[in-house]
Amino acid sequence: MFSIKQLVFKDILTVNNLEIESGKIYCLFGESGSGKSTLLKMFNSMLTPDQGTITYKDQSIANLDPVQLRREVVMLGQDPVVFEGTVRDNLLIGLQFADEADVEDQVLIDLLNDLHLTKDLDDEADKLSGGEQQRLAFGRVLLMNAEVYLLDEPTSALDEETETAIMDLFTKKIRDEGKMAIMVTHSKEVAEKYSDEIIYMNDIVTKEGDFS
Ligand SMILES: Nc1ncnc2c1ncn2[C@@H]1O[C@H](COP(=O)(O)OP(=O)(O)OP(=O)(O)O)[C@@H](O)[C@H]1O
């Protein structure tokens, strides 16, 4: 699905070779500052390497329209993005970005229940707590029906019980629909429980310029 060859980004990241297969859930694991978020952003062109190539479905990412790419390869960033407006507005805006039709309120209500988010669709989104906003952003991304989900610490603001519920829901959806995800997490437990493959940053990052 993705292939990275001899990638260099500033003095932050040097990756000789990385292959990511479709239909799997990957976790990126490594110490703080090891470049996990930076690498994640390369997969949908939010950052562009200084050297090297990244291919997606055998095409160089550099040649793909970034807007089109981001409809297929969706990012849920470390800090949840909350738009002005209601909970409903915040869920539907992802569909608008993906150029997909709106869905019925009942679909959104079911999604809020799945996310353990006991809020009304008409509630103002900026009044939600940090953990609630994280789940709202997760819901927006889940609705988008992407091919690939890039998640950066998606449950960092959640208690353990809610984290388990959200991760169970998310990974079931990925597996049922044959999609894939690359997820940054600090939690070894989350990585081991939910991923098919753990990518250890220490294993893939080489010394600058050393591609031997
Ligand atoms: N745009 C940028 N310009 C310069 N340096 C940056 C930029 N983005 C990140 N860095 C630096 O690159 C390094 C890797 O950052 P990154 O956020 O990718 O690490 P991380 O492994 O995700 O860390 P954490 O687990 O703490 O979130 C850090 O030293 C950071 O300060």
Automatic annotation (TrEMBL):
Keywords: ATP-binding, Nucleotide-binding, Transport. PROSITE patterns: ABC_TRANSPORTER_1, ABC_TRANSPORTER_2. Residues 2-212 form the ABC transporter domain. SUPFAM superfamilies: P-loop containing nucleoside triphosphate hydrolases. GO terms for molecular function: ATP binding; ATP hydrolysis activity. SMART domains: AAA. This is ATP-binding cassette domain-containing protein. It comes from Gracilibacillus thailandensis.
